[in-house]
Amino acid sequence: MAAISGVGLSWRSKVSERPSTKKKPSRSSSTTIRLCVSSPRIKMTVSVEKKQFSIQKSEEIFNAAKELMPGGVNSPVRAFKSVGGQPIVIDSVKGSHMWDVDGNEYIDYVGSWGPAIIGHADDKVLAALAETMKKGTSFGAPCALENDLAEMVISAVPSIEMVRFVNSGTEACMGVLRLARAFTSRAKIIKFEGCYHGHADPFLVKAGSGVATLGLPDSPGVPRAATIDTLTSPYNDISTVENLFNTHKGEIAAVILEAVVGNSGFITPKPDFLNALRRITKENGALLIFDEVMTGFRLAYGGAQEYFGVTPDLTTLGKIIGGGLPVGAYGGRREIMEMVAPAGPMYQAGTLSGNPLAMTAGIHTLRRLKEPGSYEHLDKITGELIRGILDAGKNAGHEISGGYISGMFGFFFTEGPVYSFDDAKKSDTAKFAKFYRGMLEEGVYFAPSQFEAGFTSLAHTSEDIQRTIAAAEKVFRNI
Ligand SMILES: Cc1ncc(COP(=O)(O)O)c(C=O)c1O
């Protein structure tokens, strides 16, 4: 694990001037070339002006969107509320880069919030999707591709002996909660402050991420009855978990958590936190659920459970296993999964679940990830990135801490260490917002919230990282 906080680092990036922006062939150039031609003898004056960062088209489109969709978006954090200013409207993505509708190019560290681990719009994934599409887009009936992805997931993830595909991480967490309650015949669950498990009612309690970003304590519309059985504990706090089990003996169905938190920024478990949870749940006849929607296939091919060597009873997945198409999954021990209908009595269903397009994108994404060297690459470039950012911040006199594991990282504008959501909230979010806007203008796209993790991909290069660090050095000096 590579959690770095408050440590004086000697690593230095080799920073040159900001390299010229990579060009995408069909896009407008970032320089303006004026040719002045006069006769009879032809004289040419060429003046090159750096294009000003402008997001005028984004503004127009987003203003129109606000009349059409609540807040102009279909998922809240995209609206840039916590960093202020104008969200950029994306036109296209490829590899580690993306382009907005104004023609600005960005190095992308959001990766569609995680799925794009092999890089955006991978040629092989696109070709496979085109082939699958020739046969149709949805069957609503069994198809062999479901078996292929299921076998890949089962052989990769230690806890999963059987799997059910759904359409989003939210759906996966809803399903797994019902299953845990059905299997144990108990109602209560423990979740951790700052962990996000999708937007189903029982989980919208101290749910980090978007909720924290908007400053809403919980969401109106969630009835008390829906959350009455949701118990919460600070992350990394075993004594609170023990107290909850003592107070609610025989009532707790499951403990659910992000084994590495990505929805309050990037927070790692203290040594032995996960082992202690494994022990306590076992002793109390409760299930341990790892929500690996974000960490699955990202921290390691077998997810956080492989990385930390702790096997939960149930696991949720999403994001990467759909390769950029809508997907989710939950799985676990066979005896538990056989409770799910129609093998067992616990009902859960989905019109588009296991559809051939999502299965295809997932299969080809996992195949690429399984190639030798994938996780070594993620580790190398993400380490380089986070060390460079922390160094740059400290050299410019800022309090900053952060860390990474494999292709997942984060940093906070606080000295750290950050072990819980309360620690994360000590971060100077106003400074983060300034940093964020500065980086955007330098062509670097981070998640628009201090309380979100960042992601790298197999498509990120050392050049991307060096450009990002150079940009960070410049922006840190100006905030
Ligand atoms: C850990 C975790 N669980 C669940 C979800 C919900 O997934 P989705 O947005 O696909 O519904 C997310 C989304 O970011 C997540 O990070």
From TrEMBL:
One Gene Ontology cellular component annotation held by this UniProt entry: chloroplast
Gene Ontology biological process terms in this record: chlorophyll biosynthetic process; protoporphyrinogen IX biosynthetic process
Entry similarity comment: Belongs to the class-III pyridoxal-phosphate-dependent aminotransferase family. HemL subfamily.
Keyword Acyltransferase among UniProt keywords: no
Catalysed transformations (reactions): (S)-4-amino-5-oxopentanoate = 5-aminolevulinate
Name assigned to this protein: glutamate-1-semialdehyde 2,1-aminomutase
Transmembrane segments: none
Self-association state and partner proteins as the record states: Homodimer.
E.C. number: 5.4.3.8
Pathway info: Porphyrin-containing compound metabolism; protoporphyrin-IX biosynthesis; 5-aminolevulinate from L-glutamyl-tRNA(Glu): step 2/2; Porphyrin-containing compound metabolism; chlorophyll biosynthesis
Cofactors, names only: pyridoxal 5'-phosphate
Domain of life: Eukaryota
Cross-referenced CDD domains: OAT_like
PROSITE patterns: AA_TRANSFER_CLASS_3
Annotated region described as Disordered, given as residue ranges: 1-32
UniProt KW keywords: Isomerase, Porphyrin biosynthesis, Pyridoxal phosphate
GO terms assigned for molecular function: glutamate-1-semialdehyde 2,1-aminomutase activity; pyridoxal phosphate binding; transaminase activity
Pfam families, per the entry: Aminotran_3 (PF00202)
